[in-house]
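Hello Y.,

Per our agreement to keep a running log of every chain we model this quarter, I'm adding this entry. I've kept the format consistent with earlier entries: sequence first, then predicted structure.
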Amino acid sequence: MVLVAITLTSCSSDSSPEPVAVTEDVPGAVAAASGWLTGQAGDDGLFATEFDGQTYPDPGLTADVVLALSASGETLGAGDIARALADPAVVASYVGDGTTSLYVGSTAKLAATLAVARLDSAEETGRDLLEELAAREAPSGRFTDLGEPDYSQTISQSWAVLALSQAGEVPSTAVDFLADQQCSGEGYPAALTDEPTGTCDADPDATGFAVSALVSAGVPADDPRVAGAVDWLTEAAQTDDDGQFWFSAEPAEASVNSTAVAAVALRDAGEDDTQALAWLEAQMVVSGDDAGSFTVADVPDARATSQALVALAGTGLAGLLG
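Predicted structure for the entry above:
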């Protein structure tokens, strides 16, 4: 496995990096990443994750792969994987049974993913995922999980706005609740609060998803709720010889995942994502059995590869969901 080395340097607020051209073949990178991903599915069509030495089916990761392959134009492969994801038993394990438990982030992401794959979620899963999602909206506009604990956060609220916008059914209360989470004139925090004050610490992943969600709901890119977040993302970026990248929150290190989410948000907001794409291209494994993959801790990682692929495909997330 061969990786391009990274040299990390900070970007100060009073200096602007020179533009970095995307020197690699973006379509070639997209094809390589999608080719690697399609070979990683399990016999059941799902993707798996490892935790504490055990391997488990991971529907959330599988949804990421469906979105990535759809963005890259591999619609047949995406459709096959989406059908495995829509199995009622898999759905229940991922989103909850809908009676005693329902995870709003998972429900929204699954509904949006199946729609991208052109599957009728009610027909495939036997459940109306959008109806179940809509029922979890509080009068404030916040989407909360059914059952305890409640895992709802900025990213799950963003997915709810994305899925309902995709269906043309997003309530203004949900959009406003998300937008009201904005840290004063800046990005968005990871955690939701019912009484936002604007005093919070912005998170790059939460900010990226919030930008894509707000754009999908029709909030103009020059609206301060989007523009301020984009400005914060730009200021939070780091640069090295490969281009522009973002740190993950924990641990604080250059992250393919966070960079991909930020690049997708920039694309959705109509901003220049060239330097971010250049950096992502430079992180791709370029030879050996894992050529086309992206790594986490030097291990080929399907989630990182999926998120990078959506960024490199250039659809944006709001654009992909339509």
